[in-house]
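User: what does the whole thing look like in 3D?
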Amino acid sequence: MKLSHLNPPQREAVLTTDGPLLVLAGAGSGKTRVITHRIAHLLEKKVQARSILAVTFTNKAASEMKERVLQLAGQKALGVTLCTFHAFGAEVLREHLSKLGWPKKFAIVDTGDQLALIRRAMKDRKIDDRAFDARKVLTIISRAKNSGVDPQPKPEGQGDDYDLVAHLVFPLYQLALKAQGAVDFDDLLVFPSRLFTEFPKVKQAYAARFRYVMVDEYQDTNRAQLDLLVHLAGEHQNVCVVGDDDQCIYSWRGAEVRNILDFERHFPGGKEIRLEQNYRSTPVILDAANAVIEKNPERRAKRMWTDTLGGARIRSVCAPSEEEEARFVAQEIKKAIAEGFPPDEIAVLYRVNGLSRAVEENLRELGVYYEVIGGSEFFDRREVKDVIAYFRVIANPKDEISLLRIVNVPSRGIGDVTMERLTAWALKHEVPLWEGLTRASEIEELPQGAAEKVGEFVALVERYRKRFTKGKLAEVTRELLAEIDFAQVARANAPSIASGDRKVKAVSQVIESLEAYEKKEGPKASLLTYLNRLALDMKSEEDEPEHQRGRVTLMSLHGSKGLEWRVVFMMGLEEDLLPHSGMQGEPANPPEERRLCYVGMTRARERLVLTRSATRIKRGKELPRTPSRFLADLPEDLVDVLDLGAVPVGPPSAKELNFFDALRAKLKAGKDSEPPKPT
DNA sequence: CCGTGGTAATTTTTT
DNA sequence: ATTACCACGG
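Assistant: Here's the predicted 3D structure for the full assembly of 679 residues, as structure tokens:
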């Protein structure tokens, strides 16, 4: 590895291997490069690969970094542990969770399960689940867990009662998780810390193994992550964190910029290195991004600079409709590829994952290969969830949420009444619900017919549980689905042929993903590890397609942090979208939205295109949109503005007028007249 | 206990 | 616009 293509501060960061090190690195200053070179340098110094730990925030960033380290240091880099905080936590728990009273094999619940557990706990506490949004309750619980305290009610009738609800629900929620041998995402961070506190020997083993610890995107760590880091690096203090307070975009998840500002307090006697020279973007892009971020009140004074010159002007494009915005982006991508930009050097970024859809359609039409990162609409499909729930029940009978989900899917005559009775019985005897099912015939409250049907279901699950232990996961799944007639039932329930086809296809994609996992994992493949992996990285495993390289990337602004492309499109630069208006109740966070915009802009090396639409369809209604305030902050001389054509916004159309007239007439005439049919 | 038809609610970002 | 959930009849 050569150090010559690093600038002096970068080199210093790479060579400072021992003791605490804080690298304050602005966008494009070679942050990732410092980490990757540092790893390579350590390996060259004959540090064992297995002693090195590097953590990132997203799976995408982790895999990107893995690739770069591999290029730099070769095969021996394979031994380096390079993963997300959560994946690291899961690894620790896989070894030691039983010490905290959990079963050895545990499941990781997803957000849907979390909400189901919250709702059930609310019911147990006699809290109306319509008066309180389970999502909000979960947010409060999650925030509390991540900051290391139990949810507490507000002192004196301050604010709403959500804190009280969370306080009441939390113990039940945590108990329910334990009862089904599961942990949630937050536990993946919190439990290792607790483990390290309660079992110093375990901690020492990890601290001794991981002599060199590196953290990327340190500005986005929350309390739980900081605790974990302090535990890991407390002994040897060889901890290197890299971050930029201007790129803190996860405060909704409890990220504390303070962590980066207080680094010296947590790891005394360390060194601080600042990287302010930007090597990534043209001065045009950099100046524009700086103009946006400078409007933020609370930030450490810092200005990224570059010694390169020129660069194409930024384009700010307004389309009349979201459809045309997407078409424009797709066409421009095609043009850029024709100009010679490789597809994998082009990205489309947006604030909400929903914006990818229209672009996807247009790219497909134009025959451009693309890859959508994040936004797991696929796993939200009902059929997919059902199949996964089958896996969960088979892998872990104590998973009651999944059990309740599939016990009657497809309909097999086990209805709510039966399940109510079984649940009551299990509760009375203090056994898991599954045990109630296995002993259905002994339960007097259950009619014989119901007990028989339950017995058949139990037999089905147990038969397949045995079969799934013998490998051939995908094959056994196919047989299971055939046995329960999954495809046929899905088709029968579908409103149209096409929709039925989609359902069946989605299910076969699950099997393909399982098959790919099996192939990759070899003989140690198991349903539970497949499920836990799925939970940590909600993208389906794919067989690497031939054109794996050379695909345009579509992802959210959050996902793009730490990555870069020669050409970047940012979509939806509109008020309420970027900056996003917070969910009702939760206030929006304008400074963070601004940072998000800054992060997106600074992903671009050569070309940046900002698009918006004058209208957008929301809840079936077309609404006019106002341009994002961030567009107004761009220096005029750096931007070319393009309007793709105004849309007539004005008085309602004749058609609409007719409709309302008819409606009025109808109301006057009474109920007997025909309702008008607008088209 | 199952299917149907009507009504209500739906929209952040990641692990 | 689409989907989830409820009340009701078979």
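In plain terms: Residues 497-521 of chain A form the longest helix (25 residues). Chain A has a mean pLDDT of 86.
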